[in-house]
Amino acid sequence: MLQLVVSGLANGSVYGLIALGFVLIYKATEAVNFAQGDFMMMGAFVTIWLANSHYLGLDFWVAVPIAIVIMAIAGYLLDLLVVRRLFGQPQIATVILTIAIGFILRFGAGAIWGHEPQWLETPFAGREVRMFGLVLGLEEVAVVIVTLILTWSLFLFFRRSKLGLAMQAASQNQLAAYYMGIPVKRIQSLVWALGGAVAAVAGILFASKGAVDPSTGLLGIKAFAAAVIGGFGSLPGALVGGLIIGLVEPFAAYALPAGYSQVAPYAIMLLVLIFRPAGLFSQVQKKKV
User: Fold this and answer.
1) Range picked from 44-48, 119-123, 228-232 for highest mean pLDDT
2) How far apart are CA 94 and CA 34, in angstroms?
3) Burial (CB count <10 Å: 0-12, 13-18, 19+), residue 216
4) In sequence order, what are the beta bridge partners of 135?
5) Selection from 114, 118, 138 nearest residue 127 by Cα
6) Where are any strands of DSSP class E within 165-249?
7) What's the pLDDT band for 262 if we cut at 50, 70, 90?
8) What is the pLDDT of residue 288?
9) CA dihedral in degrees (191, 197, 203, 204; nearest 10)?
10) Contact 211, 112 (CB under 8 A)
11) Helix (H) or strand (E) holding 128
12) Helix spans in the chain (H)
């Protein structure tokens, strides 16, 4: 059972990181990026292309920051060249656009890298940590630690830094933020860049512990469920929602007939929407009309 818990925490951390991307963009722009999972998948493939020996073969610790920067630039350009064109349009237009972008990214990844599963060559592959009778893969431990550090850093960023506060102000009232001297459009592009960077980190961690193929981008659906469970707008809630889904999956697979375990995360999301629509860590704000 403890082994299932550890495995669930590692998977849940990846879901939580993808959910963080959803929440980051929503907090700053009130838009939902349904291509966030596909950005995670692209971040994984870019890192594999940079680091694996049969591609460029760069040192792992050199390839990782390069991949994060590449995905951050991709997120920035996506907002600058595409999403910004929908400024003033209903939010559903952004939703449809990001769904279409997800399809394009999955097709592009398949055309470039193929549809066969691939793994990321890492310095800690195959290494184990033994404690309390458990055998933990070093990559699983790294996933959990990096996720906790990144979540806490982003939480402090939005609470304490001027840029983080400016991002929240632009989300709550773009016109008022503009009159206060905040460059709203540039702030939104930076948020999309930050979302791309977080997605790259999630992709790197996922590829270090399992196989990646273009359909991996569909994990964004589970991450969206995690964001809803935790409370869309709460960074700690996104992580907790991801951990909940990550823990539910292995136990549901262990206890339920084959196939039913895949429904369990969405059943939990449905229950949360029924009994606590704003999520477990809801941040409800009243707006004057």
Assistant:
1) 44-48
2) 9
3) buried
4) 130
5) 138
6) none
7) confident
8) 46
9) -160
10) no
11) strand 128-131
12) 2-29, 36-51, 60-81, 91-113, 138-160, 162-172, 174-179, 184-209, 219-230, 235-255, 264-275
Question: What's phi and psi for 33, nearest 5 deg?
Answer: -95, 95
Band (pLDDT 50/70/90 cuts) for residue 43 is: very high
- CA atoms of 108 and 104, how far apart (whole Å): 6
Q: How many CB atoms lie within 10 A of CB 87?
A: 11
SS3 content of the chain, % helix, strand, coil (to 5): 75, 5, 25
Q: What are phi and psi of 57, to 5 degrees?
A: 70, 35
Candidates 164, 162, 181; CA nearest to 24 is: 164
**Residue 273 burial (CB < 10 Å; 0-12/13-18/19+)?**
middle
pLDDT at 172 over 80: no
- Specify burial of residue 153 (Cβ count, 10 A radius: 0-12, 13-18, 19+): exposed
Residue 91 exposure: Cα atoms within 13 Å on the Cβ side: 8
- Rg of the chain's alpha carbons, rounded to an integer? 19
pLDDT tens sequence across 55-67: 888 999 999 999 9
Measure Cα distances from 57 to 10, 60, 123 in Å: 27, 8, 13
- Residue 257's contacts (CB-CB under 8 Å, 6 or more residues apart) are none
Structure tokens at 65: 């920051």
And the tokens for 285? 């704000």
